[in-house]
Every structure is written in structure tokens, then in C-alpha cells.
Amino acid sequence: MKKLFFLYIFYFIYIISTFGAETINFKVWKANDEIYRVTLDFSSEPEISELKSGNKNLLIINFKDSIFRKNSELYRIKDKEIDYIKIAQFDKNNIRLVAKTMKEYKTKFFTLKKNSDFPYRVIVDFYRKEVSEEKFTSPVLPTVVIDAGHGGKDPGAIGKTGTLEKDIVLDIALSLEKELWESGKVNPIMTREKDVFVGLKDRVKLTENKNAELFISIHNNADTTGRARGYRIYILSEDGKADKAEQLAAAKENESFSNFDEIKSKVLDKNVLGILYDLKLNQTISQSSKFAHVILEGFREDFKDIDTQVRRAPFHVLKLAGIPGVLFECGFISNKTDERLLKNKFYREKIAKTIKESVLRYLEEKKLLLCEVKNNYIPDYYEIKPGDTLIKISEQFKMDVDSIKKINNINETSIIYAGKKLKLKI
Ligand SMILES: [Zn+2]
Question: Is the peptide bond before 139 cis (omega within 30 degrees of 0)?
């Protein structure tokens, strides 16, 4: 028995080391008429190579020592340019991605690794031969900077039961990063990923260096009475142009920076505003306002205490050259009810999901997102495998269970067994 046990262990280690890379996700996108993009998420970094097929209309990418979780997936595109894109397990060790094109295409691939919690993302671009390579500044995805307020020695506001703003906002920001990464449509970047202090200057510099399309700073609110509740959203206004209440809110967030930051915020203030004026401040502010309204709209459906207006205040962290940004105060940590809600993981995830939807809606309206190609290929038959369920099969082919039942005359007394063939088309 002992021997058998060791054999099992050996077998598992062997499997893991042989098939290091397992696909988690596979999606096909259309960037424009000249570029198709395939994204594949792997559990570890695969070895990728392009194979020459002799047929210039057949593009083949090989992933060595990799396993594809499904049998195969086929995207029939059938436009003037591409007939299909297919991925399948080629043999025991290799996955192959094949694209049949009408015109001559070339490929380019690169891998992205966010951090240890995220899978390896492989991006394969198919582009028409005549498209110049300079068009590719890999990866062509809009960057969204997620700024978790405070951190490290700066705790931010503190709730009645000792909840720290820096912890709550970091958790919301990390969930938002995950949501956006999984969407495959944007490249999210965090100003901090841990409980560390990051100075104001560094948050602004990072956002500007990354050429971000959007900046969102996540905070919790606080007041001395403990009665105020709900959400407030702010965009930048120059000093002196905000109402008293808004000036106070900005002073509160700015103060925590000036208390902890080595850089005197006033010096930075002047410099950054100088750049802003040069780079069409009004245009940036109007984009910020648009984004803020999209967020308010998104939250209105599910969150009762959402603000009705976009507020303007001189937040230092929003003084970004030419980049639209908002500061979102997700609840009052000083209020008992809000604090209790914010301590709930599901509630924080709900906030992150709602922000994600708003980010994607805003970028979609600006036509900055890739367009997902629907996998609408359905085979005539499907052979049931051990472990299959009707729900699983219906999800695989994006059909509803009732129509599968109807086509195959399945009722409560029917016996479904592995090996049986199910009709998927009438
Ligand atoms: Zn704050």
C-alpha cells in the first residue's frame, strides 16, 4: 500500500511538471479590420512558437507542454478576412492555435504577467501583411490606474470599531483590478498593491508615465457627527472654485498626504496645475465629469445612498496632466451602518464589480475597447462524457437546457449516459 501511495505521488509530480501550462481562458477579439486578437490565460508560462505550414493562409501557433481544458474551441468568423480561429489539444503535450485566413496575415505574440495571483496571459495578434508593425505597441489595451488611498503609516479615516480606511480601500481596489484583468479588455495598474505608503507625487507620476486613459482613486469618507452616510464622487476643481463642504472634503484627504508625505504638497500643487493648464484643463475635466456620471448611474441601480451630483474639489491626487480622473468616496467609515457594510467582503466585491462595469461602459463609449467575437459555432452532435451535466453542456455551447431537452426529447424518465450522442441542432 505504501508503495502504491508513493507511486501516486510520483505520478502527480510527473503530471504537474510535464504539463506546467494549463489554459484557463480563451477569447477572440476584433481590434479593427486589420487586427484580430486572441487572449489565452495559462496557469504557468508556456513555450510558444509559430509553425510554418506551407500554406500562407494557415497560421499555426504551438504551445509546448500545455493542456487545453476543453476538447477544442472553434470561432467561425466568416468575414472577408478570416474564416476561423481554432484552438485544440494537438497531441499529449501540445496545444495548437490555427487560424485560416482569406488574405495573407502575420502573427505577433507576447505574454503578460501581472502578479503571482494572476495567470499568465498570452496575447496573439493576427494582422494583415500590409499593416506596419509599428502600429503595435504591445499590448494595445487601455490602461486604467486604480489608486487605493492612504496605506502604510497613513491609515486614512478610522471607523468606530477600529476599521482602517487604508485596508478597506485596498481590498476594493484589488477586487477591481481582478475584475478588470479578467475582462481582458483593459490593463489595470495599481498605485499600491500592499499596505505600504505611496507618496502623492509617485501616484501622479506613475499614472502619467503609464499614459493611462483613466484614473480612479478609492477612498472612504468620514465626518465628526457619525451621521453622514453614502457615496460621494469628486472631480478636480482648481482651488477656490469649490463649495465649502467640498473644500473641507478635499482638505481632509489632502491633509493626510501632507502629514505623511515628505514632498510638500503645495510645491507639487503649483507645478502640476501649471502642466494642466497647458494641456487643456477643461477638456480633461469634462471627460472626468463624464466618467463620474457613468459611475453614479451604475451605482444608482443597486446602492441606495449614492450621491445625485458630481462634486468638484481641489484634490491633489487628481491633478493629473491630461488624464481624466475621479476620487470616489465609497461610504462613510465614521458611520456605524456604513462601517458594518464595508467590513463585509461580499459588499466590497459588489462595489468593485459596479465600478468595473462603469469603467468598461465609459471606455466603450469612447470606442477604446476591443470587440469580443462571439463563439457561435455549434456542432451537429455532442457525445456525452463522464461527469457531464446538461447544464455544463448547455454552457459550453451557449444554449439553454430546455432547448437541448426539446431537441432530444428528454423528459424526467430519460436516462442520460456517457457515450450517448446529443443532437444540438434541429
Ligand atoms: Zn481617504
Answer: yes
How many CA atoms are closer than 13 Å to the CA of 410, on its beta-carbon side? 17
The CA 216 to ligand 1 mean position distance, Å, reads 13
Q: What spacing in Å lies between the alpha carbon of 331 and ligand 1's midpoint?
A: 11
Measured in angstroms, how far is the CA atom of residue 254 from the centroid of ligand 1?
Answer: 9
Q: Percent of the chain scored above 90 by pLDDT?
A: 37
How does DSSP assign 357-386, residue by residue?
HHHHHHHHHTT-SPEEPP-----SEEE--T
C-alpha cell at position 311: 462634486
Please give the distance, rounded to the nearest whole angstrom, from the Cα atom of residue 226 to the centre of ligand 1: 16
| DSSP H helices in 106-243 | 165-183, 200-209
Q: Mean per-residue pLDDT for 313-317?
A: 82
Sheet containing 58-64: order of strands: 47-51, 58-64, 95-101, 82-89, 72-76
Among the listed ranges 5-19, 20-34, 184-198, 407-421, which one has the minimum average pLDDT value?
A: 5-19
In the structure, ligand 1 is a single-atom ion and the residues with CB under 5 Å from it are 149, 156, 219, 253
Distance 338 CA to ligand 1 centre (A): 15
Over the stretch 89-106, which tens digit does the pLDDT of each residue have? 999 889 999 999 888 888
188-210 mean pLDDT? 92
Contact 203, 260 (CB under 8 A): no
Q: Could you give the domains of the chain?
A: 18-135 (2.60.40.3500), 143-365 (3.40.630.40), 381-423 (3.10.350.10)
Q: Specify the pLDDT at position 273.
A: 46
**Distance, CA 297 to ligand 1 centroid (Å)?**
22
The 10 Å CB-count burial string (b at 16+, else e) for 201-220 is: bebbebbbeeebbbbbbbbb
Q: Give the pLDDT score at 8.
A: 47
Average pLDDT estimate for 412-424? 82
Query: What gap in Å lies between CA 78 and CA 59, rounded to an integer?
Result: 16
Mean pLDDT confidence for 102-127: 85
Mean pLDDT for the chain overall: 83
Beta strands in 238-324 (DSSP E): 306-313
